[in-house]
Fold this protein.
Amino acid sequence: MEIVSMAAENKKHIVVLSGAGISAESGLKTFRDSDGLWMGYNVEDVATPRAFKKDPQLVLNFYNERRRDVAAAEPNAAHKGLADLEKDFNVTIITQNIDDLHERGGSTNVLHLHGQIFQMRSVANISTIYEIRGDINVGDLAPDGFQLRPNIVWFEEAVPMMEEAAALLHDCDYFVVVGTSLQVYPAASLLHYAPPFLPKFIIDKKIPSVSNYPNLHLIEKPATEGVEELRKLLSGKY
């Protein structure tokens, strides 16, 4: 056991920030590709506290549908490729996505910045989490007597995992950004936390504006192709 532990400690550490683009190749829709609309809805109407207060059942129905979409989706080669890196590296995934495709793809260390679609909580208590595989409806109450809601960080809400995520950037050997436009804050600010000397890999079918960051390696490809190229680079030059 001690030998295994020492081997793990000697592995270099990769931190990955993933966004909607990696799950899009599994058939899950993004809102950045459709003029700000997410499955035909304005984000402000289904993904904010104001929207939930105005029409809670509409918001619950939206996430009930997303839950069904995620359950029907399968991890793709990008999810599996990142998981496969664990053979040679310590890998931490920081994902903006609410799906579980990284976990189902084999990744063992995943931090969800924006919550998880298969979890719910009371509107009055952010710390007690319950699993949910079916639907949530108005009138479904937590044990504390308050309405249940998806355990999702909506726009206009604080992102409680940001501090933990930012700290990881000072304790890794490589930083990989895959499938994100770097437009959603505060998640997009994680690139600012990466030390200048840290090698950074940006993978996206359309590379966002990142030219002012040092030590960049740009891979302008869809996530599935880009992660495969990343694996070859890390097994060779790096």
Residues 1-7 have pLDDT under 50 and may be disordered. The radius of gyration is 18 Å. The longest strand covers residues 115-122.
